[in-house]
Design a protein that fits this description.
Blueprint (H helix, E strand, L loop, with lengths): L1 E2 L2 E4 L2 H4 L3 H23 L21 E6 L3 E7 L5 E5 L5 H7 L2 H4 L7 H17 L10 E3 L7 E6 L2 E10 L2 E6 L4 E6 L2 E4 L1
Parallel strand pairs: 1-10, 2-10
Antiparallel strand pairs: 2-4, 3-4, 5-9, 6-7, 7-8, 8-9, 10-11
């Protein structure tokens, strides 16, 4: 099976909106990205609901995940539990590096860089989303493979998770691909990985 994660930039005029209106704009953009992922996957998008804990509810055997930041949104739909996360790459305090990953995990990379930090962060967040777990479980999610160009392998609970990653306009995007092929849809462009 092929997954079609969609990443869309937020239009400049919309990125200056603030407060509750900004949240509405980002939610609409993320749902548009989800609609594009569904169309490419041959899925008729059903009603999008979350359970009482805010976990996306599958519909007709389809799972979905959304993520949004002020400048970009990401979404994906699939036949298995799925998670996607997008984060803008920007400076973070050193203490957050130590919170995010153990020394053993950091040794899997050549050094503690911002790029590596956001690869780990988005991979862990996407994994937790796929399992319906919150960010409070971040430390229980472990990177277990050396960094490869656009892939990571994580362990959480009894599961092993394959992650596909991509840089986009100063952001890192991660999607749980469960070893499926991934074709990124970026704006109006499709990128095969």
């Amino acid at each position: 099976m092929t997954l079609y994660p969609v990443v869309l930039p937020i239009i400049q005029s919309e990125s200056s909106i603030v407060g509750g209106e900004k949240s509405k704009v980002l939610r609409r953009a993320a749902r548009k990205a989800l609609q594009l992922s569904a169309e490419k996957s041959g899925v008729v998008l059903g009603e999008i609901k979350k359970d009482k804990n805010g976990v996306p509810c599958p519909f007709r055997g389809n799972y979905w995940s959304l993520s949004h930041k002020p400048k970009c949104v990401a979404a994906v739909i699939g036949r298995e539990e799925i998670g996607i996360d997008i984060e803008e790459i920007k400076p973070r305090p050193e203490s957050l590096f130590d919170y995010l990953a153990t020394e053993e995990e950091w040794k899997l990379s050549k050094e503690k860089t911002l790029d590596t930090f956001f690869r780990y962060w988005t991979a862990k967040e996407a994994t937790l989303k796929s399992m319906g777990a919150g960010i409070g479980k971040l430390k229980k999610c472990r990177v277990i493979s050396p960094l490869i160009k656009n892939q990571l392998t994580l362990e959480y609970g009894d599961g092993i998770f394959s992650i596909e990653q991509m840089h986009f306009q100063g952001h890192m995007v991660s999607v749980v691909n469960n070893n499926n092929a991934v074709e990124w849809i970026v704006g109006n462009n499709q990128i095969k990985e």
